[in-house]
Automatic annotation (TrEMBL):
Gene3D superfamilies, per the entry: Acyl-CoA dehydrogenase/oxidase, N-terminal domain (1.10.540.10), Butyryl-CoA Dehydrogenase, subunit A, domain 2 (2.40.110.10), Butyryl-CoA Dehydrogenase, subunit A, domain 3 (1.20.140.10)
Domain Acyl-CoA dehydrogenase/oxidase N-terminal, chain residue ranges per copy: 17-129
This protein's UniProt keywords: FAD, Flavoprotein, Oxidoreductase, Transit peptide
PANTHER family with a match to the protein in the record: GLUTARYL-COA DEHYDROGENASE, MITOCHONDRIAL
Pfam families: Acyl-CoA_dh_1, Acyl-CoA_dh_M, Acyl-CoA_dh_N
Protein name, per record: Glutaryl-CoA dehydrogenase
Matching InterPro entries: Acyl-CoA_Oxase/DH_mid-dom, Acyl-CoA_Oxase/DH_mid-dom_sf, AcylCo_DH-like_C, AcylCo_DH/oxidase_C, AcylCoA_DH/ox_N, AcylCoA_DH/ox_N_sf, AcylCoA_DH/oxidase_NM_dom_sf, Glutaryl-CoA_DH_mitochondrial
Occurrences of domain Acyl-CoA dehydrogenase/oxidase C-terminal (ranges): 236-382
A molecular-function term among this protein's GO annotations: fatty-acyl-CoA binding
Signal peptide limits: none
Cofactor section: FAD
UniProt-listed GO biological process terms: fatty acid beta-oxidation using acyl-CoA dehydrogenase; fatty-acyl-CoA biosynthetic process
UniProt record similarity statement: Belongs to the acyl-CoA dehydrogenase family.
Native source organism of the sequence: Polymorphospora rubra
Length: 389
């Protein structure tokens, strides 16, 4: 009997435009050529060629692709989501590079920066010549950014920043950071060149997850910045939170890529692996697992597509993004774990991508808001009552 790919079960390609399918095909090819042959080694070594990948992605227009002007492609939210799906089918760390660059660092400057800041930073960032990071999370303040202790004080016409940020993707290789700090007027954002005096970065090693991503700690020791380093339109905590909402859209898509890659691997393995005289795929328990995972993958895809269409229409709300991030990452992780069981002992081998995806998704489950945070966001919208405090 003929077989269909997991995402072909419901003919979901019919819901895409020709342009969206073309963009997906381009990203899939670059992942097949530049990521898949090497990513197992990057993961084992705990190092990936971030700068080389950034330049490659910049040439393809993937960095800040959903932003307009300043060298950005101006693609739709759906096209951006499909790109994230294909990137994370290669590896979550590779997709994180693109997400942090475009949806956090570049988006913050694009949305809240001055015209001068946009012209100076965005074109080289879109080209992958300048790498950015996003400094919000602190060693003692993750889910509660309102309690951040990093401070910015005025000193004449300058700003002086003191504090520290932790678990910052791209930090060890970044040229610029968007750093959020408390001021006498509330939370404000600053564009901080990483070669500024007083900035030091330590790479976080011994990670068991996202090993093909570069993660670091940023220490700010009386970092003096000119007045025009502040993002003029970023006022209050809503500014960095809006950047997180932007990034979560890509995560809702990207996690499906990891899940799809796991499911494809498990199906191919089960069809070829013979036990008790027949392929493992021919057993009812295996088919039940595969069917359940395929159904969840279709549902997650339809959810991500719906949210992206809302984003393109300008009607997407933050709590809707929380639904996408909560559901799709949670289900993707469960799919990865189930696929591991189908591969048996081979499921823990680096020869197959399944456990690497599962390990990566453990981080994806936590960053850009833990599952518990998104549950509370949704619960608050349903009840009108806040359970955060």
């Amino acid at each position: 009997m003929s077989r269909v790919a997991p995402l072909d079960l419901l003919d979901l390609d019919n819901s895409l435009t020709d342009e969206e399918r073309q963009i997906r095909a381009v990203v899939r090819r670059v992942v097949d050529d530049r990521v898949r042959p090497h990513v197992a080694g990057w993961y084992e070594q705990g190092h990936a060629p971030i700068r080389e990948l950034a330049l490659e992605f910049g040439r393809l227009g993937l960095l800040g692709m959903h932003l307009t002007g300043y060298g950005c492609a101006g693609s739709s939210a759906v096209a951006y989501g499909l790109a994230c799906l294909e990137l994370e089918a290669g590896d979550s760390g590779v997709r994180s590079l693109v997400s942090v660059q475009g949806s956090l660092a570049m988006f913050a400057i694009w949305r809240y920066g001055s015209e001068e800041q946009k012209r100076y930073w965005l074109p080289p960032m879109a080209a992958g010549e300048v790498i950015g990071c996003f400094g919000l999370t602190e060693p003692d303040h993750g889910s509660d950014p309102s309690a951040m202790t990093t401070r910015a004080r005025r000193d004449g016409d300058d700003w002086v920043l003191t504090g520290g940020k932790m678990w910052i993707t791209n930090a060890p290789v970044a040229d610029v950071a968007v750093v959020w700090a408390q001021t006498d007027e509330g939370v404000r954002g600053f564009v901080v060149p990483m070669d500024s005096a007083g900035v030091t970065v330590g790479e976080i090693r011994n990670k068991m997850s996202l090993r093909a991503s570069s993660t670091g700690e940023i220490v700010l020791d009386d970092v003096r910045l000119p007045a025009d380093a502040r993002l003029p339109l970023a006022v209050g905590l809503k500014a960095p939170l809006s950047c997180l909402t932007e990034a979560r859209q890509g995560i809702a898509w990207g996690s499906l890529g990891a899940a799809r890659d796991c499911l494809r691997t498990a199906i191919d393995y089960a069809v070829s692996r013979v036990q008790f005289g027949r392929p493992v795929a021919g057993f009812q328990l295996t088919q039940a697992k595969l069917a359940d995972m395929a159904v969840e993958l279709q549902k997650g895809y339809l959810l991500a597509l719906h949210l992206a269409r809302l984003a393109d229409a300008g009607t997407l709300r933050p709590e809707q993004v929380s639904v996408g991030k909560l559901n799709n990452v949670r289900e993707a992780l469960e799919i990865a774990r189930q696929c591991r069981t189908i591969l048996g002992a081979n499921g823990v081998s680096g020869e197959y991508p399944v456990l690497r995806h599962a390990n990566n998704l453990e981080s994806v489950l936590t960053y850009e808001g833990t599952s518990e945070i998104h549950q509370l966001v949704i619960g608050q919208k349903l009840t009108g009552l806040s359970a955060f405090a």
